[in-house]
């Protein structure tokens, strides 16, 4: 790869060089006259001592001097011997050792590698020792060149290949290292470590059993550091290091190609365009070169070129999961849905191999896991690796004659197959096979004029707003209203121990339970024992008394559930016009049905064991029967999670330790009873550590979708695929058979597409600890976008939806990356707090474990991000210039958890209800300057009554806004009102509603600054809600 950059020196040249080494090795300045005289005297004494001795005696004496540490005397003895006997390999070997000890490892390695041993074993051993000396000096290029030559000349090729692969991996040249190992894998001589290194070839791989490279000095090994930085999402640092490396190694195709990938991941398309014009030759052999071009093509929506480039990347690195997902999206964009499905199937197989690789990286796998790896690799078209893993599994269980015979037979079949098809080419049916790729265009047409355009930099489908962001002001009014609620998680504050379930926080529900026009508040409570359904402290319901005060009506309303409370959902379950409550608990979940007289009736949802842990609940019509389904998002399916404590120095109670739970889907039958909507026995595809959920029309296609944020697992996105009157739903990732009775046979057809849609994971494909979830049309292109908060040292994920039902990860471009990474984010809400027509973001933060002794904050400040046309601005607390007006909410670090948005006082400004672990709940009243607004309450008739899934577009003047009726969130339910901030526009509004039933309704000339109640199919002008009852 680097060419023969290090010339091997012949013996005569080496002797000429050695005569000067005593002057230059280990010296930082010219020797003094005294040192010269002393050295000459030593030289003379040595000559006198050895002049009368034969050569062998002189060599023995030189060895003794070297053993005693007299390197200079040994060197002086060896120089004349080597001059008179240049063919003595033992003298050359000893002189190489002298030079190594004198502090010149590169010169020593050069000499050692040039020794013409006649014994092949000695020759191989010398070359391998020379490699070690090169690496001590960070001289990776000559080490790699030497090993490459040795693989062709030495008889000990297997040992040399092992060492070459190690060095290539240490220097970040992962794909080349995997190629070097292939002959060993075919011969069955690859170690488990070798096999482990080729599972995923694009990620950093540094064998900790070897000496770590010296990253303090810029060397070829720095490429592995750049890869590690990339894998840790430190993209800017990685790019800076790669820029330095390219200056030092301008001909390295591996370095240049990887920088292209990093620039593509940074979405720095201007720099990526410049990168294209300064590349070394032969870079086309690098998969990351093609991946970068594929992202360029995707950026300009040139899907055909993207397919070609990404396919070329997969050809060269079949383990590249990111390229597979991108090629699947491009195939779907050009209408090749079946081929896109093939790519996603390949992706899913690779995802599982990566999961197993993580297991093997921590400890030895089980025979079953090794066999699973073998089966996966066989299906992925990597038969030699598959056979190698199967051999390891057999060895672990004890080699039986039948097993060995079967392995030998498999190997024989592979040899015969390879003889007829040397490259074991991919089947032509695979979209990225060489035969199929040739039909797609190469990237010659990618020009700077089109590629420099940043599709995410301007609002799409709508012009920029003239209104400017304004100061945002909040004030905590909870004490003034006599609103007193403190969530008690049952943690004993006298010790350092705590349990995982004590950290999630309590749910919040916003509803107008008595239909007097003023929203009320429902708060879930926990207790001491997670599995005790009779906590002494109940949930609480607070009635809003015209925004002047609140009244605790918990006991009178019979809403005092006493389970270990988690999330709250609000929905009109029985469609009687009164909002009901759904309480997620650890244990039994509860439905509180609103009786319409100020009281509720309690009903337990069907249970599946006492230890079930539900975090959030969402409701909405999925199957088109005009009744809401219920989705219980579950977290952990392991009773020991309630028994294993965490302490600051031991995070053993983290969610990854425990088995993820399967989410549960319920529906109502004709009798009003709940029953299972989704069969999910065993290892269901929707298992995960679920935290938050949104249900609504999230893809622009009629019908509701479901998005679930998982903690440490891939997020899930169930996209509707239409409805049909049948009781069966099939597909490997489609929902399983419905169990609805014959009286209600409508079925929801859905497919899990989070990875394909681009909202399953981080920008680089990693799995985040996702917790909070918010949505809005942040870029104002008429499509819903998502904001997901994550764990410490993980950026929040901002997914902006584009045409074609795909999302672009935009956290960096929208400038929330840096601010969100040093936090543990929980509740998040999107609302236009300053009423300028652009959605803003609020986030509550707080750690789980107290790591202050490690320099990590425990309590954290909340965050406020003000929306602009193409980015967010972090405004920290309040944008009020008068610091004296700031509420202490923004300056006091807390263990923040849950957020809900509501218009508490009916003034057209969105307020916020916040819950914490360590302080009372806070009601933040929005006191920003008023601007034009319009709000809508929707009542479905042909649709389910809450109209979840409705899409509403408002036009005022030349500007348009879109909003969606959804249900769910992170442990909370917002007020069921669609809020539109109109900025500086005071013109009448035109309203277009697409109801979940498919019917459309248009309203014209609605004056702004009112809340309207709209009934589906009602031709009358909607009535304006003032401060009066709906009764």
Automatic annotation (TrEMBL):
The chain positions of domain ASPIC/UnbV read: 947-1012
Q: Does the keyword Nuclease apply?
A: no
Repeats (TPR): which ranges? 287-320
Query: Is the keyword Nucleotide-binding assigned to this protein?
Result: no
Q: Which domain of life is it from?
A: Bacteria
Family annotation (SUPFAM superfamilies): Integrin alpha N-terminal domain (SSF69318), TPR-like (SSF48452)
**UniProt keyword annotations, A-Z:** Signal, TPR repeat
Write down what this protein is called. ASPIC/UnbV domain-containing protein
Protein species of origin: Rhodopirellula islandica
């Amino acid at each position: 790869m680097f060419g023969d950059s290090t010339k091997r020196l012949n013996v005569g040249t080496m002797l000429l060089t050695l005569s000067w080494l005593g002057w230059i090795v280990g010296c930082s300045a010219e020797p003094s006259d005294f040192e010269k005289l002393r050295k000459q005297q030593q030289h003379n004494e040595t000559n006198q001592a050895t002049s009368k001795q034969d050569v062998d005696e002189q060599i023995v004496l030189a060895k003794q001097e070297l053993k005693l540490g007299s390197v200079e005397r040994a060197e002086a003895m060896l120089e004349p011997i080597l001059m008179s006997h240049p063919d003595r390999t033992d003298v050359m070997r000893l002189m190489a050792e002298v030079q190594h000890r004198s502090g010149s490892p590169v010169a020593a390695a050069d000499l050692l590698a040039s020794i013409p041993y006649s014994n092949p074993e000695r020759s191989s051993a010398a070359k391998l020792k020379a490699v070690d000396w090169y690496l001590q000096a960070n001289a990776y290029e000559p080490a790699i060149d030497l090993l490459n030559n040795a693989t062709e000349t030495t008889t000990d090729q297997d040992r040399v290949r092992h060492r070459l692969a190690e060095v290539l991996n240490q220097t970040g040249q992962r794909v080349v290292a995997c190629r070097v190992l292939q002959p060993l894998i075919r011969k069955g001589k690859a170690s488990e470590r070798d096999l482990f290194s080729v599972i995923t070839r694009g990620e950093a791989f540094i064998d900790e059993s070897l000496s770590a490279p010296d990253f303090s000095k810029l060397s070829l090994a720095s490429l592995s550091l750049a890869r590690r930085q990339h894998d840790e999402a430190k993209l800017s640092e990685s790019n800076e290091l790669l820029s330095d490396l390219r200056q030092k190694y301008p001909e390295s195709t591996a370095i240049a190609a990887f920088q292209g990938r990093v620039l593509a991941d940074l979405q720095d398309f201007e720099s990526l365009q410049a990168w294209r014009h300064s590349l070394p030759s032969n870079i086309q052999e690098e998969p990351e070169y093609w991946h970068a071009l594929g992202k360029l093509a995707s950026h300009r929506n040139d899907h055909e070129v993207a397919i070609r480039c990404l396919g070329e990347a997969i050809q060269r690195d079949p383990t590249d999961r990111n390229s597979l997902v991108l090629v699947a999206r491009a195939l779907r964009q050009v209408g090749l849905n079946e081929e896109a499905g093939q790519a996603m199937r390949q992706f899913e197989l690779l995802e599982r191999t990566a999961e197993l690789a993580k297991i093997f990286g921590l400890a030895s796998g089980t025979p079953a896991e090794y066999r699973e790896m073998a089966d996966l690799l066989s299906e992925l078209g990597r038969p030699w690796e598959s056979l190698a893993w199967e051999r390891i599994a057999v060895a672990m269980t004890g080699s039986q004659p039948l097993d060995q015979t079967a392995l030998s037979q498999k190997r024989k079949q592979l040899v015969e197959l390879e003889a007829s098809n040397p490259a074991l080419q991919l089947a032509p049916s695979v979209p990225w096979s060489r035969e199929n790729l040739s039909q797609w265009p190469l990237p010659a047409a990618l020009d700077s004029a089109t590629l420099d355009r940043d599709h995410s930099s301007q609002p799409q489908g709508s012009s920029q707003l003239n209104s400017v962001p304004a100061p945002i002001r909040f004030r905590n009014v909870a004490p003034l209203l006599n609103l007193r609620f403190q969530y008690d998680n049952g943690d004993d504050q006298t010790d350092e121990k705590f349990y995982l379930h004590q950290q999630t926080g309590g749910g919040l529900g916003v509803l107008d339970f008595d239909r007097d026009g003023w929203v009320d508040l429902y708060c879930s409570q926990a207790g001491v024992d997670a599995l005790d359904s009779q906590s002494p402290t109940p949930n609480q319901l607070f009635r809003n008394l015209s925004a002047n005060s609140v009244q605790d009506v918990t006991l009178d309303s019979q809403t005092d559930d006493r389970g270990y409370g988690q999330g709250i959902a609000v929905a009109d379950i029985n469609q009687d016009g009164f909002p009901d409550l759904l309480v997620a608990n650890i244990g039994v979940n509860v439905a509180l049905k609103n009786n319409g007289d100020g009281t509720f009736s309690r009903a337990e949802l069907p249970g599946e064991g006492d230890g079930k842990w539900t975090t959030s609940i969402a409701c909405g019509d999925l199957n088109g029967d005009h009744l809401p389904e219920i989705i219980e998002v579950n977290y952990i399916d392991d009773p020991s999670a309630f028994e294993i404590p965490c302490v600051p120095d031991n995070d053993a109670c983290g969610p990854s330790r425990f088995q993820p739970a399967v989410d549960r889907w319920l529906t109502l039958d004709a009798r009003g009873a709940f029953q299972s909507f989704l069969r999910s026995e065993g290892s269901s595809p929707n298992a995960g550590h679920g935290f938050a959920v949104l249900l609504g029309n999230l893809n622009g296609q009629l019908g509701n979708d479901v998005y679930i944020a998982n903690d440490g697992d891939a997020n899930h996105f169930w996209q509707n695929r239409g409805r049909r009157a049948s009781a069966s739903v099939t597909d490997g990732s489609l929902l399983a058979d419905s169990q609805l009775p014959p009286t209600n046979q409508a079925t929801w057809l859905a497919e899990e597409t989070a990875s394909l849609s681009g909202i399953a994971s981080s920008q680089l494909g990693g799995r985040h600890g996702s917790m909070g979830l918010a949505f809005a049309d942040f870029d104002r292109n008429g499509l819903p976008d998502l904001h997901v908060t994550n764990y410490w040292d993980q950026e929040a994920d901002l997914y902006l939806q584009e045409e074609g039902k795909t999302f672009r990860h935009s956290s960096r471009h929208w400038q929330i990356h840096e601010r969100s990474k040093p936090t543990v984010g929980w509740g998040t809400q999107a609302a236009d707090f300053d009423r300028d027509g652009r959605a803003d973001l609020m986030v509550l933060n707080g750690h789980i474990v107290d790591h202050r002794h490690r320099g990590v904050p425990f309590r954290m400040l909340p965050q406020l991000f003000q929306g602009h046309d193409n980015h967010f601005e972090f405004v920290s607390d309040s944008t009020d210039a008068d610091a004296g007006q700031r509420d202490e909410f923004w300056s006091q670090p807390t263990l923040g958890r849950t957020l809900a948005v509501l218009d508490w006082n009916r003034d057209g400004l969105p307020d916020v209800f916040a819950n914490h672990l360590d302080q009372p709940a806070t009601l933040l009243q929005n006191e920003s300057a008023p601007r034009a607004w319009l709000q809508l309450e929707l009542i479905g008739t042909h649709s389910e009554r809450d109209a979840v899934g409705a899409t509403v577009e408002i036009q005022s003047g030349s500007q348009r806004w879109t909003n969606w009726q959804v249900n769910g969130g992170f442990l909370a339910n917002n007020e069921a009102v669609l809020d539109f901030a109109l900025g500086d526009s005071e013109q009448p509004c035109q309203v277009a509603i697409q109801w979940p039933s498919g019917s459309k309704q248009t309203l014209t000339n609605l004056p702004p600054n009112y809340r309207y109640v709209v009934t589906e199919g009602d031709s009358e002008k909607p009535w304006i809600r003032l401060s009066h009852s709906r009764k």
